[in-house]
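# step 3/5: fold
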Amino acid sequence: MEESLRCKLTAVQVFAMDVDGVLTDGGLYFGSDGSELKRFYVHDGLGLVMLQQVGIRALWLSGRQHEGVRARASELGVYLVQGVHDKSGVLRDVLREWGIDSGQVAYMGDDWNDYEVMRVVGVRLAPCDATERIKRFADYVTNRPGGHGAVREACELILEAQGRLEEAFGGYISGQ
Protein backbone atom coordinates (compact mmCIF):
# COMPACT_ATOMS: atom_id res chain seq x y z
CA MET A 1 0.00 0.00 0.00
CA GLU A 2 1.34 3.45 -0.89
CA GLU A 3 2.34 5.53 2.13
CA SER A 4 0.12 8.47 1.07
CA LEU A 5 -2.91 6.18 0.91
CA ARG A 6 -2.03 4.55 4.24
CA CYS A 7 -1.81 7.98 5.84
CA LYS A 8 -5.26 8.98 4.53
CA LEU A 9 -6.79 5.67 5.66
CA THR A 10 -5.48 6.03 9.22
CA ALA A 11 -7.83 8.99 9.71
CA VAL A 12 -10.99 7.16 8.55
CA GLN A 13 -13.82 7.08 11.08
CA VAL A 14 -16.66 6.56 8.58
CA PHE A 15 -16.85 4.27 5.55
CA ALA A 16 -19.66 5.58 3.36
CA MET A 17 -20.76 4.09 0.07
CA ASP A 18 -23.28 3.89 -2.71
CA VAL A 19 -25.42 0.76 -2.82
CA ASP A 20 -26.13 -0.25 -6.45
CA GLY A 21 -22.89 -1.19 -8.19
CA VAL A 22 -20.90 -1.15 -4.94
CA LEU A 23 -22.75 -3.43 -2.52
CA THR A 24 -24.63 -5.09 -5.37
CA ASP A 25 -23.44 -6.05 -8.82
CA GLY A 26 -25.44 -3.18 -10.29
CA GLY A 27 -27.92 -5.45 -12.03
CA LEU A 28 -31.64 -4.85 -11.73
CA TYR A 29 -33.48 -8.11 -11.16
CA PHE A 30 -37.26 -8.31 -11.42
CA GLY A 31 -39.45 -11.18 -10.31
CA SER A 32 -42.42 -12.32 -12.36
CA ASP A 33 -44.66 -10.20 -10.12
CA GLY A 34 -42.62 -7.07 -10.97
CA SER A 35 -40.86 -6.92 -7.61
CA GLU A 36 -37.25 -5.82 -7.67
CA LEU A 37 -34.63 -8.09 -6.12
CA LYS A 38 -31.12 -7.22 -4.93
CA ARG A 39 -28.24 -9.54 -4.19
CA PHE A 40 -25.72 -8.76 -1.46
CA TYR A 41 -22.37 -10.50 -0.94
CA VAL A 42 -22.03 -11.95 2.56
CA HIS A 43 -18.28 -11.21 2.74
CA ASP A 44 -18.98 -7.51 2.29
CA GLY A 45 -21.41 -7.62 5.20
CA LEU A 46 -18.89 -9.23 7.53
CA GLY A 47 -16.31 -6.61 6.55
CA LEU A 48 -18.74 -3.86 7.57
CA VAL A 49 -19.46 -5.62 10.87
CA MET A 50 -15.72 -5.87 11.55
CA LEU A 51 -15.27 -2.13 10.90
CA GLN A 52 -18.07 -1.30 13.29
CA GLN A 53 -16.61 -3.59 15.96
CA VAL A 54 -13.53 -1.36 16.10
CA GLY A 55 -15.59 1.85 16.11
CA ILE A 56 -15.63 2.80 12.41
CA ARG A 57 -19.13 3.73 11.29
CA ALA A 58 -20.71 2.47 8.07
CA LEU A 59 -23.06 4.66 6.03
CA TRP A 60 -25.00 3.78 2.89
CA LEU A 61 -26.25 6.55 0.58
CA SER A 62 -28.59 5.36 -2.17
CA GLY A 63 -30.43 7.29 -4.83
CA ARG A 64 -33.03 4.54 -4.99
CA GLN A 65 -35.52 3.24 -2.41
CA HIS A 66 -35.74 -0.46 -1.69
CA GLU A 67 -37.06 -2.43 1.26
CA GLY A 68 -34.41 -5.12 0.81
CA VAL A 69 -31.66 -2.49 1.19
CA ARG A 70 -33.30 -1.23 4.38
CA ALA A 71 -33.52 -4.78 5.75
CA ARG A 72 -29.86 -5.56 4.97
CA ALA A 73 -28.65 -2.27 6.44
CA SER A 74 -30.67 -2.93 9.59
CA GLU A 75 -29.30 -6.46 9.88
CA LEU A 76 -25.73 -5.11 9.68
CA GLY A 77 -26.29 -2.06 11.89
CA VAL A 78 -25.45 0.31 9.03
CA TYR A 79 -26.79 3.87 8.91
CA LEU A 80 -28.85 4.18 5.72
CA VAL A 81 -30.25 7.12 3.79
CA GLN A 82 -32.27 6.21 0.67
CA GLY A 83 -33.81 8.35 -2.07
CA VAL A 84 -30.76 10.65 -1.99
CA HIS A 85 -30.14 12.97 -4.93
CA ASP A 86 -27.59 15.26 -3.23
CA LYS A 87 -25.27 12.71 -1.65
CA SER A 88 -22.64 15.29 -0.68
CA GLY A 89 -25.26 17.44 1.09
CA VAL A 90 -26.71 14.46 2.96
CA LEU A 91 -23.21 13.31 3.89
CA ARG A 92 -22.37 16.77 5.29
CA ASP A 93 -25.60 16.74 7.34
CA VAL A 94 -24.89 13.28 8.78
CA LEU A 95 -21.28 14.15 9.57
CA ARG A 96 -22.33 17.38 11.30
CA GLU A 97 -24.73 15.33 13.45
CA TRP A 98 -21.96 12.84 14.27
CA GLY A 99 -19.29 15.52 14.83
CA ILE A 100 -16.98 14.05 12.18
CA ASP A 101 -14.94 15.94 9.57
CA SER A 102 -15.34 14.96 5.91
CA GLY A 103 -11.59 14.29 5.74
CA GLN A 104 -12.22 11.33 8.09
CA VAL A 105 -14.52 9.65 5.56
CA ALA A 106 -13.73 7.01 2.96
CA TYR A 107 -16.38 6.80 0.24
CA MET A 108 -16.83 4.08 -2.37
CA GLY A 109 -18.74 4.91 -5.52
CA ASP A 110 -19.01 3.48 -9.01
CA ASP A 111 -20.66 6.03 -11.31
CA TRP A 112 -21.24 9.71 -12.13
CA ASN A 113 -23.80 10.19 -9.36
CA ASP A 114 -21.00 9.53 -6.84
CA TYR A 115 -18.55 12.07 -8.23
CA GLU A 116 -19.65 15.10 -6.17
CA VAL A 117 -19.66 13.22 -2.88
CA MET A 118 -16.25 11.74 -3.68
CA ARG A 119 -14.89 15.29 -4.07
CA VAL A 120 -15.57 16.14 -0.41
CA VAL A 121 -14.18 13.07 1.39
CA GLY A 122 -10.70 12.16 2.58
CA VAL A 123 -10.40 8.85 0.70
CA ARG A 124 -12.02 8.01 -2.64
CA LEU A 125 -12.53 4.29 -3.40
CA ALA A 126 -13.99 2.53 -6.43
CA PRO A 127 -14.72 -1.09 -7.36
CA CYS A 128 -12.77 -2.36 -10.38
CA ASP A 129 -15.93 -2.34 -12.51
CA ALA A 130 -16.73 1.33 -11.83
CA THR A 131 -16.90 3.77 -14.73
CA GLU A 132 -13.52 4.87 -16.07
CA ARG A 133 -13.88 8.46 -14.83
CA ILE A 134 -14.59 7.32 -11.28
CA LYS A 135 -11.69 4.84 -11.34
CA ARG A 136 -9.31 7.60 -12.51
CA PHE A 137 -10.58 9.89 -9.72
CA ALA A 138 -10.27 7.24 -6.99
CA ASP A 139 -7.35 6.99 -4.57
CA TYR A 140 -7.74 3.21 -4.67
CA VAL A 141 -9.50 0.84 -7.09
CA THR A 142 -10.30 -2.57 -5.67
CA ASN A 143 -9.33 -5.81 -7.33
CA ARG A 144 -12.86 -7.13 -6.72
CA PRO A 145 -15.99 -5.87 -8.53
CA GLY A 146 -19.03 -4.31 -6.91
CA GLY A 147 -21.30 -6.84 -5.23
CA HIS A 148 -18.50 -9.41 -5.26
CA GLY A 149 -16.15 -8.38 -2.46
CA ALA A 150 -15.11 -4.81 -3.34
CA VAL A 151 -16.50 -3.54 -0.03
CA ARG A 152 -14.78 -6.30 1.98
CA GLU A 153 -11.48 -5.50 0.27
CA ALA A 154 -11.88 -1.84 1.21
CA CYS A 155 -12.82 -2.70 4.81
CA GLU A 156 -9.69 -4.80 5.20
CA LEU A 157 -7.60 -2.06 3.57
CA ILE A 158 -8.85 0.48 6.15
CA LEU A 159 -8.33 -1.93 9.04
CA GLU A 160 -4.84 -2.85 7.84
CA ALA A 161 -3.80 0.81 7.46
CA GLN A 162 -5.01 1.50 10.99
CA GLY A 163 -3.23 -1.57 12.37
CA ARG A 164 -6.56 -3.01 13.51
CA LEU A 165 -7.06 -5.95 11.15
CA GLU A 166 -6.12 -8.59 13.73
CA GLU A 167 -8.32 -6.86 16.34
CA ALA A 168 -11.28 -6.97 13.93
CA PHE A 169 -10.68 -10.64 13.09
CA GLY A 170 -10.08 -11.54 16.75
CA GLY A 171 -13.69 -12.42 17.54
CA TYR A 172 -13.77 -14.88 14.66
CA ILE A 173 -10.52 -16.71 15.27
CA SER A 174 -10.56 -19.62 17.71
CA GLY A 175 -8.51 -19.03 20.85
CA GLN A 176 -8.59 -15.23 20.59
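# step 4/5: annotate
The two ends are 27 Å apart (CA to CA).
# step 5/5: archive (pending)
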